[in-house]
């Protein structure tokens, strides 16, 4: 089993910054991808950013140029700058470990206007 522990959510004013972290632990042989998804009230969960084992990254168009995903060892980070009210959502960490998907419990990000 793999456990994901997220941290870094909170309340911030528009234009501000937050940094999310997600640490994976447990029975891990190889991590293939680590990423972040978000779900706003009444909306479907959507991809925010993902980073592969080889360091390739992919971002949602809505966050390009504002968010940066990075990873070190078994931890993934999401640096979020120039936050907008529409970024308000529960952010979920996701990882593919040994070809199995795992999800964190989610961390709330609220951006006030």
What topology emerges from the helices and strands here?
Blueprint: E1 2-7, E2 10-13, E3 18-26, E4 31-39, E5 46-52, E6 57-59, E7 67-72, E8 75-80, E9 89-97, E10 100-103, E11 107-112
Parallel strand pairs: 2-11
Antiparallel strand pairs: 1-3, 3-8, 4-5, 4-9, 5-6, 7-8, 9-10, 9-11
The low-pLDDT segments are none
Cα separation of the termini: 40 Å
Q: What's the pLDDT, averaged over the residues? A: 96
| Quaternary structure annotation | single chain
Q: What best-fitting shape do the alpha-carbon axes yield?
A: globular
Structural class: mainly beta
Cα radius of gyration in angstroms: 13 Å
Strand content: over 45%
Please provide the count of β strands. 11
Order of helices and strands: EEEEEEEEEEE
Give the number of helices: 0
Q: Sketch the major β-sheet.
A: 7 strands, mixed
Can you give the helix content as a percent range? under 10%
Q: How does this structure look, described?
A:
By secondary structure, this protein is mostly beta strands. The protein has no helices and eleven strands. It has strands at about 1-5, 10-15, 20-25, 30-40, 45-50, 55-60, 65-70, 75-80, 90-95, 100-105, 105-110. The strands form two sheets. Strands 2, 4, 5, 6, 9, 10 and 11 form a seven-stranded mixed β-sheet that branches. A hairpin with a 4-residue loop joins strand 5 (about 45-50) and strand 6 (about 55-60). It is globular.
